[in-house]
Amino acid sequence: MNDVIDVMLAHRSIRTYTDEVVPDVDIKAAVAAGQKASTSSNIQTYSLVHVTDSAKREAFIEISGGQEKVRDCGAFFVVCGDMRRHRLLAERCGSNCEENVESFLLSVIDASLFAQNMALAFESMGWGTCFIGGIRNDLNAVQALLDLPQSVAPLFGMTVGRAAEEPWPRPRFPVDTIIHENGVVADDDVLGQCDAYDELMKGYYLQRGASGRTWCGQMERFFEQPKRPHLLAFFESTGVRWR
Amino acid sequence: MNDVIDVMLAHRSIRTYTDEVVPDVDIKAAVAAGQKASTSSNIQTYSLVHVTDSAKREAFIEISGGQEKVRDCGAFFVVCGDMRRHRLLAERCGSNCEENVESFLLSVIDASLFAQNMALAFESMGWGTCFIGGIRNDLNAVQALLDLPQSVAPLFGMTVGRAAEEPWPRPRFPVDTIIHENGVVADDDVLGQCDAYDELMKGYYLQRGASGRTWCGQMERFFEQPKRPHLLAFFESTGVRWR
Lengths: 243, 243
Prior knowledge:
Chain A is an alpha+beta fold. Helix content of chain A is 46%, strand content 13%. Chain A folds into two domains: 166 residues, NADH Oxidase (3-Layer(aba) Sandwich), CATH 3.40.109.10; 45 residues, no CATH class.
């Protein structure tokens, strides 16, 4: 199609890396390109922590449930929602900065748009990437480890580095499962789409040596228990008022 | 640098469009490329509504505070977090689907990574884009207009079309304001960075005929009142348990 779409279509997360370090010039290029993503009213409510300290990297392995790629990758980042600039500016002029569901959404969306551009920029330079949601296993620990102040909330990590594996791309839903016209499909059709997707996924699971697995089977109990229940209180402690 | 980064660096939101319609082939290509963005554990918790109905487009102008580009653009989309597939799969097997802060975060991040890839894919094909956060002025109205069921939550809109303007790109923070090593900077340094950014922004505001304006001045009262306070109850009504 074109080079941009080709890089998107070639995406697969990289979970095994060589020991090649990502040079600063590539990091700055990817961050600057990431920042050009849209940001609501130019508020830019995010910050990026580049974790270079090896003891901290080890701690992140434990927080994220034993993901050794956090140590082994060429660069490890923590993407944060950051409302601190706005809070400090408000405090300086005697005003308020009310953090609520909307400001939380703004910072998560802003940070995610930035991060996706940054990840794709790294991939366009030949690096592999993986988002590390596992840091949300314990955001209090992340906050302490990085000494994060009020109004700065870690959201997810990202490993970047030279791929030492060549994984199969995971098939996504067919386009027609995602896109709807003027509304969405009925519940029964949703289940049919999920079952149809499992047919698509058979080859992928077979190649991974997990021939009995299905996407529906993975997902039907995925949210059986409330996940990471500490997050409500954690984000409240950073300043978000849920009430 | 390379074609991918060049398209990122050329980004500016487009708010005035010609009447050229975006063809389906380009929409499907952008959505498929968007879907290749990372998604946590391949859960793919998002859906896209392509709003083609002209009465609905008119209603979105009103919801989003008079943004006529919603009518005038070549294609208008609503990006939704979508936990319905998981809920229906859980219900089918007699399990639960617990929607909480973590599942909300997962769906917002997934949807945003998808949307940023999609926007950039459109831009790589020569189309202009603009994210429309203004639909969050009244998500109950959006829900009614698109007849959205439980567990499907509209997050933001996106206009796509042929640019009928050539706006200046808005400067972002310098890279060093965003990226930090092993922690973040002190409060005093944050305020210094904000003031320094205003120097960068002077030329931009001058060019826009708003020479007295500053970024700090815009931001210091931006969150003075809680924004869109209905969102807490709205997302709760879609299934999110904040407690």
